[in-house]
Design a protein that fits this description.
Layout lengths: L6 E2 L6 E2 L5 E4 L9 E4 H5 L3 E5 L4 H12 L4 E5 L7 H15 L2 H8 L8 H4 L3 H10 L1 H4 L4 E4 L3 E4 L3 H4 L4
Parallel strand pairs: 5-6
Antiparallel strand pairs: 1-2, 3-4, 5-7, 7-8
Helix pairs in contact: 3-4
C-alpha cells in the first residue's frame, strides 16, 4: 500500500498527511519552491502593520512579530497608503478602545510630526479627512491591525501578546 504524501504549510509549519487540506500557493517571483498553505492558515487572520521603513518603532513591531513567528503584512505608507475602508476600520476599532471616534483620531495623530500644525487647529469634522489625505506625514506609527476588530497605535506589545 502506497503512503499518502505529506505536505508542510509554508505559513504555519503545520504538517498533515491529508493533502486535500492544503492548497497550492503561488511562489514568489524568482523562487522555484512550491509552498502549500493549509486550511488552518486561511481561517487565521492576518496582522497588518502600517508605517514607514525609516520608523524605528515600525522596525521594532516587525521584529516583535517575527520573533514570535506570527505572520504579518507590512504596508509602507510612503508607497501605498491605507484605503478608505482600511482607514475606517482602524478608526472604528480604535474608537472601541479609546472611547469614541474623536478620541481615536486624536490617538492616531502624531503630535511630534513637523506637519502637525496643519491639523492641530482644525475642527473635529475636518481632522479625519486631513489625516486620511496625509497618512505618511501625520499618523503615529506603527498602526497595527488585527483583522477588522482590533487595532493599536504605537508600541503596544502587551496587546499584541494576545494576538496570534
Amino acid at each position: 500500500m502506497a503512503e499518502s504524501p505529506t505536505a508542510a504549510c509554508g505559513g504555519c509549519a503545520h504538517m498533515n498527511n491529508n493533502i486535500t487540506q492544503f492548497s497550492l500557493r503561488k511562489p514568489k517571483a524568482g523562487c522555484n519552491l512550491v509552498t502549500y498553505s493549509c486550511v488552518f492558515c486561511y481561517t487565521v487572520f492576518m496582522i497588518q502593520i502600517f508605517g514607514t521603513n525609516k520608523s524605528f518603532d515600525c522596525k521594532a513591531a516587525q521584529r516583535f512579530f517575527k520573533e514570535r513567528r506570527i505572520p504579518f503584512q507590512f504596508v509602507d505608507l510612503k508607497e501605498k497608503e491605507m484605503s478608505a475602508g482600511e482607514f475606517d476600520s482602524v478608526v472604528t476599532a480604535l474608537a472601541r478602545t479609546e472611547g469614541g471616534r474623536d478620541a481615536a483620531l486624536d490617538a492616531l495623530i502624531d503630535k511630534k510630526s513637523k506637519d502637525y500644525a496643519s491639523i492641530a487647529y482644525l475642527d473635529d469634522s475636518e481632522k479625519e479627512g486631513k489625516l486620511f489625505e496625509n497618512q505618511a506625514a501625520l499618523l503615529k506609527q506603527p498602526v497595527c491591525r488585527n483583522g477588522k476588530s482590533e487595532a493599536t497605535v504605537g508600541m503596544a506589545q502587551k496587546i499584541w501578546e494576545g494576538w496570534k
